[in-house]
Amino acid sequence: MKNFLNKNIILIALIQIFYCPDNGWAKPISVFVSIIPQKYFVERIGGDEVNVHVMVKAGESPATFNPNPKKMSRLTNTSLYFSIGVPFEKIWLSRIKAIQPSLKLVPLNNNLPLIMPSGHQGSKKSFHEKSDPHIWTSPPLAKIMAIKIKDALSRESPQKAEFFKKNYTALAKDLEALHSEIRDIIAAKNTRSFMVFHPAWSYFADTYGLEQIAIEHQGKEPGPRALQKIVTQAKKLKIRVIFVQKQFGLLIAQKIAKMIGATVQEIDPLSENYFENMRQTAKAISGANH
User: Fold this and answer.
1) Who's near 277: CB < 8 A, 6+ residues apart?
2) All residues at 6 or more sequence positions from 230 whose CB lies less than 8 Å from its CB, including other chains
């Protein structure tokens, strides 16, 4: 009899936890995101009220990614998809929408000051399609993304709106503190230029008054003439480190590093540990010419 009563007490407690009078059984909101940093932001705001899946996992490239059938099948039970402008979305978002017509697409890069990689010319549409998608590398822009996430989750689950707002407020304060910390790190050094293989840090550079020099141009490795120009510029600026990410161009970066007497160092804009990664990146870039 005692065991029976205990089991019923547990059952009643579970019902109280998971059942919402206004919305029936309150399951976590099923969310898909394109890349890992988005997962961090959605989970900071959504907490236990979201169940987040990531399209591009660690080590995969958003430029060449193709989702497998198993991953696509998970979309059938998904409520929200937060896009961000990475390359694979151009082909796959329309296919995803066809598979799940009721899926709500929330573009986190809409109405943001997008940056075009240097040398691009073309129409307004072309600009939007080919602009640098790495908006999260700027903490102030990440804060704007967080507002969009908070608003979308609140629309999906209005009874949890205050919970999402509270979590957003905490995240926004952390992003403001991070922004201030990075400014101090950059200001403490004289470094104003840094070299990367893949131009993933345009928004970071723009936010903190830096110049990003990219080896790759519009997705292509440099030819002999462009390579010589890069080497000359690197020597003039006394570049001592070339930054790479594991998804792109290690061999060509190593070749240029050897030519200019520099080292190669990995920094990854797709890291899930957003705050620590941004701090370490700021420290690495600020000391890159010393």
Assistant:
1) 267, 268, 271
2) 195, 213, 215, 222, 256
pLDDT in tens, 47-72: 999 999 999 998 888 888 988 888 88
Asked if residue 114 lies in contact with residue 89, where contact means CB atoms within 8 angstroms, the answer is: no
Phi first, then psi: give them for residue 63, nearest 5 degrees: -80, -30
Lowest mean pLDDT among 24-33, 63-72, 90-99, 116-125: 116-125
* Sequence-distant (≥ 6) Cβ neighbours of residue 105 within 8 angstroms: 81, 83, 93, 97
Can you give the residue range of the structural domain that contains 97?
2-181
> Residues 156, 158, 162, CA angle at the centre, nearest 5°?
120
H/E stretch holding 130: helix 124-130
Same domain for 163 and 33: yes
Token digits of residue 62? 């958003």
pTM: 0.84
